[in-house]
Amino acid sequence: MADAKKPKLVTDEFAEYVFVPNHFKVTPEMKKSFDADGAVVVRKLLSQEEVNKIIKSLENNESVIGRAWALSDGTGSSSKLVIWNNPGHDVTGMVARVRKVAKTCEDLMDGEVYHYHTKLMMKEARTGGQHLWHQDYGYWYKNGCLRPDLITVFIALDRCVKENGCLQVVKGTHRCGRIDHKLIHGQTQADPERVEQILKHFKLRYAELEPGDALFFHSNLLHRSDKNESDMRRWSFLCAYNRADNDPVYEHHHAQYTPLHMVPDTAIMECTNLTDLSGKDFMDPKKDKTVRVNQDEEEQTRVNYR
Question: How many domains does the chain divide into?
Answer without folding.
Answer: 1
